[in-house]
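Check this:
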Amino acid sequence: MKGKILLTALAFSSVSMIASAVETDNLVVYSTQQDKGATSLGNQAFYTKSFDVTLANVGDKDADLSKFCLKAYNKHGKTFKLDTIEETLTTGNLLPKKTVKGMAVFASNDESVYDASIVKLSYECDINDKK
C-alpha cells in the first residue's frame, strides 16, 4: 500500500514538472546588456548589471508571469540574484503571441556579476527573486 501511495505521488509530481517545462518552453527571453554599477556603504560594496528584457509568449495559452523569476548567468553557469525588476515582467498574464518589456538588475558582492551574459526564466525562485 505504501508503495502505491509513493508511486502515485511520484507520478503526479512528474506530470506537474512536465507541465511546468512546457509552459516555460513557450516563453522566449530576449535580453540586452545595459549598465554596470556599484554601490558602497562603509567597507561594504555590491555590484550590479542591468538588462533590458523582453518576454515573448510564443505558445497558445496565457502565461502567468508570477510563476517565474529571472536569473542572470555567466558563461560558466554561475547564477546572479535579481536585485530590481520592473513589475511588467513579473505580474499578470502574458497573452499568446504577445510581448512585455522591462528592466532587470542583477547584483553580486563582487565584480563577477559584470560577466553575466544571459538572462533565463526559472521556476526555482525564492522570495528575493521576485523583487
User: Anything to note?
Assistant: Residues 61 and 96 are 6 Å apart (CA to CA). Residues 27-130 form a domain with the Immunoglobulin-like fold (CATH 2.60.40.4110). Confidence is low (pLDDT under 50) at residues 4-22.
